[in-house]
């Protein structure tokens, strides 16, 4: 006799609780990710960075790619979210996977459909993980002999794209575009926000003067 699998639909309250718990995990990585912070990250100048002749491209995906292209290349994300905090036209794709037998979270950030930032985080790691990571980066990006393991290390390419390796609570590798387009979009949003705040302040001051 042919057997059939039995599927159960979670009650709404249990499904809602499961989704909220899942969302809170991803949001814990972006709670501090605001417009000013993102703009500052892209605007920083790093004069002590290693220069690589190989273009920096996480997953060999060029900056500027669309979310659809990233999904086509990597697959459907584990979670995605858009318009976080005070960001407009902003989207993040999250991927949970395993590398070197360690749990890893990968983020792809887009503004107005333009891929501008990515981060790979080892949620747990060992010194062996750290050594293998550095060796892989040295081989891929043709690093000089002076390239050595540090708690924080920066690299840039001829297009101004950046890679930052940091060892803290998590071992992270961050990638940032050198293109000015996303930074300009952020600056426009920052200007618009300040204008709206000034209008709101002026309205409150005018309202107060009429009351006094």
In percent, how helical is the residue content?
A: 25-40%
Q: What best-fitting shape do the alpha-carbon axes yield?
A: elongated
Q: Helix and strand string, N-terminal first?
A: HHEHEEEEHEEEH
The Rg value, from CA coordinates, equals 21 Å
Percent range for β-strand residues: 25-35%
Please give the structural blueprint.
Blueprint: H1 12-27, H2 35-43, E1 50-52, H3 67-74, E2 79-82, E3 90-99, E4 102-111, E5 114-122, H4 127-140, E6 152-157, E7 162-167, E8 171-176, H5 181-211
Parallel strand pairs: 1-6
Antiparallel strand pairs: 2-3, 3-4, 4-5, 5-8, 6-7, 7-8
Helix pairs in contact: 2-5
Question: Which terms would index this structure?
Answer:
eight-stranded mixed β-sheet, alpha+beta, disordered N terminus, elongated, 212 residues, Beta-lactamase Inhibitory Protein, Chain:B, domain 1
Descriptive overview:
- The chain is built from 5 helices and 8 strands, in the order H-H-E-H-E-E-E-E-H-E-E-E-H.
- The protein is an alpha+beta fold and 212 residues long.
- The protein has one domain: 2-Layer Sandwich (Beta-lactamase Inhibitory Protein, Chain:B, domain 1), CATH 3.30.1450.10.
- Helix 2 crosses helix 5.
- The protein is elongated, with a radius of gyration of 21 Å.
- The relative contact order is 0.15.
